[in-house]
Amino acid sequence: MVSLKQFLAGLAFVPVVLSHPPPDQHSKIAPKVIIISMFGPEGEAWWGIPEFDVLAHNITVPGLSPLYPHVHCTADKVICQLITGESEINAAVTITSLAFSELFDLRSTYFFVAGIAGVNPMHATTGSATFARYAIQVALQYEIDAREMPHNFTTGYVPQGSLAPGQYPQSIYGTEVFELNNELRTRAVGFAKNAQLADSAAAQTYRANYLQNSTHGIYQMGGSPPSVVECDVATSDVYYSGDLLSQAFDNTTTLLTNGTGQYCTTAQEDNATLEALLRAAVHDRVDFSRIVVMRTASDFDRPYPGEDAAYHLLYADQAGFEISIENIYRAGIHVVQGIVGEWKETFSHGVKPNNYIGDILGTLSGGNPNFGPGRILALEESGALLTKRSRSVLSKRWSNRL
Ligand SMILES: *[C@@H]1O[C@H](CO)[C@@H](O)[C@H](O)[C@H]1NC(C)=O
Ligand SMILES: *[C@@H]1O[C@H](CO)[C@@H](O)[C@H](O)[C@H]1NC(C)=O
Ligand SMILES: *[C@@H]1O[C@H](CO)[C@@H](O)[C@H](O)[C@H]1NC(C)=O
Ligand SMILES: *[C@@H]1O[C@H](CO)[C@@H](O)[C@H](O)[C@H]1NC(C)=O
Ligand SMILES: *[C@@H]1O[C@H](CO)[C@@H](O)[C@H](O)[C@H]1NC(C)=O
Ligand SMILES: *[C@H]1O[C@H](CO)[C@@H](O)[C@H](O)[C@H]1NC(C)=O
User: Which positions make up the signal peptide (predicted)?
Assistant: First the structure.
């Protein structure tokens, strides 16, 4: 019989095993920065720029997307870039393949996720460059179509294992929330603030609508010019839009981060990328304290006051796409150059986090996250610890399926 303590001890904290270092360790590619793009236009934002040429080397890495099979690197291989393909599955498989590739030594590499996103007008606007501390997988929930929901539900989304919206999930998968190095984020934001962000007349015209109704003073940021903002990113394969889903996932963010996260941008990959990097960090292949997630805003997650939700999503010209792509480069170049430029004195040693980093299970440090139910309960609710309580939750989960 294995005690709970012994079981937990064996479950994670995989010790760093370097007993058989591959003989060619020194010939591996060890970039200082890898830029992670999610689709073509985000990738192309970095091509043909005056500062560096990431297309000097194209390295085929098994497991990457058939659409984007290469890792691109500068001639000196100090800066590299890849495109994951869109949505959670593509991001997870691509980053796992990179992180476990024997072609690379990524132990000192900074991972810079640089993509576009929807944006919450309460915190930022189109063209803004946002930097996340948390990534929240907001749609990892039960869902019934809102037309069939009980009259007293505020949304059709219900946290897994729970009985109503707003209840803390009783069933944990482990990827619900990731927390990143806040001190590194502060540095990245400091670099990005040197940027002159792009804007356009058409984007200004559309965002002005968010200021039109004074009862919506809450959208002050949505109606203001683009800026660099610290706020968090939601991940969902479903490209949702509208007041009610945005509010529902704002509530989910608050719930899952115990009130410390700020629901701000919405994209389809970051939690998957972070789960892949976390698994690699467990085996000391990457350093989880060296990740920056930047999302520049291409569109609003909800209509302006008085606008129809479907019109906003499907027909309106929000005019944010071009400036968001341009601002990946304008803000991001300062981050890349900042890290490479201060490599010797600062970044080669790493930036010590002042906050918990990792997932909801406490996988990396074994410590307790500052969100979630705590390591032991989270493991229990994930089904990893088959206690009486989790067995009953699991059996309920599966009997509901039959
Ligand atoms: C690398 O690939 C890009 C497009 O994917 C291409 O434009 C570039 O010329 C390639 N570089 C080399 C050195 O082949
Ligand atoms: C909704 O109403 C039902 C009874 O009609 C009640 O049992 C349940 O607790 C209510 N749920 C919420 C979220 O208020
Ligand atoms: C302003 O917003 C309030 C609350 O949503 C709404 O009732 C009102 O009709 C709006 N007014 C205009 C002019 O859009
Ligand atoms: C979000 O939470 C607030 C506060 O609990 C609640 O009033 C609102 O109805 C919720 N919104 C949705 C869409 O669930
Ligand atoms: C987060 O909130 C949940 C639900 O309210 C609670 O059970 C848990 O203890 C909280 N976690 C932390 C670290 O405060
Ligand atoms: C996804 O990752 C972001 C950080 O980029 C974090 O804020 C969020 O909580 C994560 N969500 C899930 C469900 O893992």
Answer: 1-19
